[in-house]
Design a protein that fits this description.
103 residues, two-stranded antiparallel ribbon, 8 strands
Length: 103
């Protein structure tokens, strides 16, 4: 999906009531996504649970990560993340990365 005047592309993982958005580190892009989520809340009557929201980095600095988390009003998540029991991030070549899947 492309949004905004610069036609930002959004990539995502979604299952049931869980969604992960992958965005480039750009405050304008993040503000556009926040605006779309706020519109979704108004139109649908549903609320996004910010207590379950988080921001994590893929090749951005800690200070940028903290700044973006403050913008979204959520916590900074540490890696590797799990999504539906599968790891996101980390090194898939290591045994420790695969242990949770093998259990």
């Amino acid at each position: 999906m492309k949004i905004g005047s610069n036609e930002m592309e959004i990539s995502y993982l979604q299952f049931a009531n869980n969604t992960i958005l992958f965005l480039q580190e750009d405050e304008g892009n993040l503000r556009n996504v926040i605006f779309l989520l706020q519109v979704f809340e108004v139109v649908s009557g549903l609320r996004i649970n910010r207590a379950k929201c988080g921001v994590t980095d893929i090749n951005i600095g800690d200070s940028d990560e903290d700044r973006l988390a403050m913008l979204v009003r959520c916590e900074v998540l540490s890696q590797p993340l799990t999504y539906l029991g599968m790891f996101l991030g980390g090194n898939p070549r290591t045994i420790s990365f695969r242990e949770a899947v093998l259990k």
